[in-house]
Structure formats: C-alpha cells, structure tokens
Amino acid sequence: MTTLPPRAARRCHNALNPLHSTHYFSPDLAEELAAEGVADQSAAYFAARSAAMGRVGAGTVTAAFYNFNHELVARHLPAVWETASPKTVLAARLRAVDATLRRLLGEEAVASPAMAEAAELALRAAEACTRHARPLYAAHADLPVPGEPHLAFWHAATLLREHRGDGHLAALLTAGLDPLEALVSHTATGKGMAPRFVLATRGWRRADWEAAAERLRGRGLLDAEGELTEAGAALRAQVEEHTDRMDAAPYEHLGAAGVERLTELGRGFLLAAAQAGAFPEAMTGKG
C-alpha cells in the first residue's frame, strides 16, 4: 500500500470537488433543465444530482444528500420525474457541464494535454473507489465515461467527490451531528457556507439554525458567540480524519506522485474557474 504525505488525499479532493460543483452554480444548467421543463432552482439541483440513481423519491434523496430539509426535497421529488426523466436530466447535465467548462476555462484549456492528463489520473484514482454503503458514488459509477477529456475529467471528479461524500456522511453520523448541526459546526470552522446561503438553498429556517446551534452549545461544542470550542474544533477534526481514512483507497491507488500531479492540475483549473466567476460570493461568510 502506498504511503501518502499527510492530508495529500484531502488536498486533492479540495481541488477537484469545487471544480465538479461549478455546474450547480452555472446558468448553463438552469437553461438546459428549463428547456426540459424544470425551471425551479431547487428541483433542478435535486434532479441533476440524483438522476444517476433513477426515479428516486424524496426519502432516498434526503438520506443521500444529508443536509437538506426533507420538506424541501419532498416538494420536488418524485414529481420532477414526470416532467423530465432521469435519462433526460443526465443528458442535459452533461451538455451544461460541457458549456460551463468551455466558458470558464476556455477552449485552449479544454483541449490541452494537461486536461487529458488530469482525466487519466482522476480516472485511475477512481478505479479504487468502492460501491458498498456509497449510494451516490455507486450510481454515478454505473454511468459511461464521456469520451471528451474535459468531460471525462469532470466525470472522474464526480466519482471521487461522491465517494468521499458518502463516507463523510458516515463520519457525521459517528460524530452524532445531525444535518443542520453538521452545517452549523462546519460554518463555525470558517470553511463552511454562510448561514444565509444555507437557509436559502437547504430549506431550513433561521429558527432551525438557532436551535441546532443551541444543541451544539449544550454539548459544549459551540460557545455563546457561535464559535467552536476546543471540544468542537476537535470533533470537526475527527470528522475530517475519519473521512480521510474511509477515502484513502483511490489516492493510495494513484500513488504519491500521481496525487501530487492531479492536485496541481486540479488547482490550476479551479483557479481559472474561480477567476472567471464560477462561484457566488454569497456562499461564504458567517452572516
């Protein structure tokens, strides 16, 4: 088994995951799905991310996505599949990803040897992902690998993202953090989404957020100002370390040199995407 430098796998994930996510914030996805009759923003997100699992209902998506209010999910699923089938949604999503990456990165980067190299490395890492207890990864692993390198890279980044994400949910459960407590405590690390963005996109109310914060205070994990206590910071670190352990296989399979190179390539593409305005400013902060 390959020994990687400390947190090398997490650093690689942190380069690939946001690049995968660019299409969720892209007008291209909204336009493609609106053309198929799915105009609501939440419905489009739930459909795009869950379509690989087939015509799933609200319960399955609430379980697999973890941090959304079930009431919001149930507003759109399974009804969205009467408007656009999973097959239709998957095709629309791939068209949106193609348009988004071309717009954010430019045609030269999309057609570059670096993109082809990144796709090859990411796909090689994904060879070591495992399906058991990982529903979102397993569903996406059953999809064909796109032929064009930039789409193959995005597909592989999706596999790696969902593989780690499925494992992360197990770590959150082990830590005793419910969906909103996970969001509140992550925001308190300074790395999570702003409460305003969570409330606008996850279906929770401000009272729900405050109740979750109070539960965390009761466990000694959050202080009166909403900052993590020493115990809270230690618990969040344990969650990430637990997630790292469950997500080690793909990166150990790729090897230290491959992980370093994939991280370098991914960061370059991510920086270009961010500079092109890929992510809304409202996502971050504590307001």
From TrEMBL:
InterPro entries found in the cross-reference section: HTH_67
One matching Pfam family: HTH_67
Superkingdom to which the source organism belongs: Bacteria
Annotated protein name in UniProt: SalK
